[in-house]
Structures are given as structure tokens and as C-alpha cells.
Design goal:
Length: 309
């Protein structure tokens, strides 16, 4: 296989949600770049049917074998291809963790892992299908770029850049989305204030903005969380109060904040998924309320934190 795209890339069709956009963008990459392949483990296989009929050698469904899923992707990378490896985040990161760590990380191979359904985007699947700890796990490895898109246009951009730019990337798809995209690199300033800085990650932005509409705070938006854009955080820091609103385990980015602000006295709060073993089903909105990730819950946590500033 060559490394040159067969035809010039074109803008992807806009999708209504992140998972549909993943299929659209990946299908176009397969059609336009003969080195791109996607590896699936039944999840989303039906949606890839049209492009699989055109390029069956580069749309590979290994069945319900998630360890093989990741190892097959690493094998394609060893053969010089650009693999996109996809399943539920709970399967592609947690269930196949040893293969992620060794087959991609230890062998220093390039590839893109795409985990769907976020922390609890399909509550009916139960705890086996939930992955609030995926980003925290990847934080134990080196040299992974982690994207948490909050809009289909962001996912399209991140996936294209990840495939063409090389390196190891994880794209976390799930937990709702924001009404508008923000396509700038790094932390994006949304509004400025004096009492503290809130970093809203991916699909938490619209809920965070609703929660702080009348508060005098800075809001920064992050759709890429690793590497962490510490320079923008420091440049925009008006008060030594930092709040991370993340759609995964609360406190996942605490070490990043501490590292970036190590020479500055500061306080920080992590708002995110609390106890992941609540033994609850319901709908995603119910889990937002349970973990304080709905606008009301976010506001309560912020008010309590700022009371002591």
C-alpha cells in the first residue's frame, strides 16, 4: 500500500450526532486513502456496510473479540496501514487494556482508537457497557492524544488529523453534544470572569454554560484534553480557583492542573462521574442528575466551591 491518498479529501457530510459523523468521516477516509482501515467488533458494523462492500479488505469485523480487535489494529499498523479501531469505550479501552498498553503503547505504533457511548450513554447496557474510567486509564501511558469532541464537526476534524498526522490517539464519542462546534486548537475561551476559571470538557459545555449564566467566571472549552493546554489556562487565570467539568471520572485531570499551576497557590475542584457502581439504569439524563452533571448539579458544586474563595 502507498501512503498517498487516492483522491483529494473533501469536506464530510454533516451528521446529526457524533456516532453518525464517525461513520461518515471514516467511510470517506477509507474511500480516499488506500492505507486507512477500520477494525470493528460487531459494534457499528451494519453502518459500515456500504463502504465494506466497496473495500472489504479494509473494513474488518473480528466479531465479539475485543482483545483481537486491538491486536488486529496493531498488526495493520505494523504492516504500514493507518488503523482506526472502534467499539464501546468500555471494550476498546478497558476490556482490551493489555493490548492497548502493549500492542500499541509498548511497540510504539500509530493508530486511532474510537470509543463510543462514553460514561453511561447506554444505561440499559449496565455497568459492562459504561466507561467512566477510560481517560484515567490512558493517563497511565505516555504519548496518547485524547480527544473528547462535543460536536460532529469537531469529531470530523479530530479524526482526520489523527489519521493523517500519525501518533496514538483516542477519540471519546458519547455523553451528548453541544449545539455549536469550536474548531480552534487548545483551550478555547468562551467567556471571561473574575471569580474563577471553569474548564468544560467536550459535551459538558452547554450544561456548564447554563449552570453559570449569571456567575462572574471564566469558561474555557476543551475538546482535546491530552496534551493539556496549560499555557492558555495560565494566561487566562484571573483568580486561583480552577474547576474542571469532565464527562468521565471526577478528578481525572487533577494531576494536570496541579502540574500546570505547581508554582502558583491555587484551589481546584473536579466535577464529573462519582461512584460508577450506583447500580442504576434509567436514561442518560437520570445519570447526569445522579452524578451532578446536569446544570443544577454543576451549579450546586460550583457555588459550594466558590463560597470558600
Amino acid at each position: 500500500m502507498t501512503s498517498t491518498a487516492a483522491t483529494a479529501p473533501r469536506a464530510a457530510t454533516s451528521a446529526a450526532n457524533l456516532r453518525d459523523q464517525f461513520v461518515i468521516t471514516t467511510s470517506e477516509l477509507i474511500r480516499t486513502d488506500p492505507d486507512v482501515a477500520v477494525v470493528l467488533a460487531e459494534i457499528t458494523a451494519a453502518q459500515f456496510g456500504p463502504v465494506a462492500a466497496e473495500h472489504p479488505e479494509r473494513v474488518i469485523n473480528v466479531g465479539i473479540r475485543e482483545q483481537l480487535l486491538v491486536s488486529a489494529g496493531a498488526g495493520l499498523a505494523l504492516a504500514g496501514l493507518k488503523p482506526i479501531v472502534h467499539s464501546f469505550g468500555a471494550f476498546v479501552i478497558e476490556r482490551a487494556w493489555e493490548q492497548v498498553k502493549l500492542d500499541f503503547g509498548h511497540q510504539d505504533l500509530d493508530g486511532v482508537l474510537v470509543g463510543a457511548y462514553g460514561s453511561y450513554d447506554w444505561p440499559a447496557g449496565g455497568r459492562t457497557h459504561q466507561a467512566p474510567g477510560d481517560v484515567a486509564l490512558l493517563d497511565t501511558l505516555r504519548d496518547w492524544t485524547i480527544h473528547v469532541p462535543g460536536h460532529p464537526a469537531e469529531l470530523d476534524r479530530q479524526l482526520r488529523r489523527s489519521v493523517r498526522g500519525g501518533g496514538r490517539a483516542y477519540i471519546r464519542v458519547g455523553d451528548g453534544q453541544n449545539p455549536e462546534p469550536h474548531l480552534e486548537d487548545g483551550l478555547v475561551p468562551i467567556r471571561r470572569g473574575r471569580r474563577g476559571t471553569i474548564v468544560a470538557v467536550g459535551p459538558t459545555l452547554h450544561k456548564t454554560l447554563a449552570a453559570v449564566a449569571d456567575l462572574d467566571v471564566t469558561v474555557l472549552y476543551a475538546s482535546t484534553v491530552r496534551p493539556f493546554d496549560g499555557a492558555t489556562l495560565r494566561r487566562t487565570l484571573a483568580a486561583p480557583n480552577v474547576i474542571m467539568v469532565e464527562p468521565y471520572l471526577a478528578g481525572t485531570s487533577a494531576a494536570e492542573i496541579a502540574r500546570v499551576l505547581a508554582d502558583l497557590p491555587h484551589r481546584q475542584l473536579g466535577i464529573g462521574v462519582g461512584d460508577p457502581d450506583q447500580h442504576r439504569y434509567g436514561e442518560p439524563a437520570d445519570h447526569d442528575r445522579l452524578h451532578g452533571l446536569d446544570p443544577a448539579g454543576i451549579r450546586i458544586s460550583i457555588d459550594r466551591f466558590l463560597e470558600w474563595s
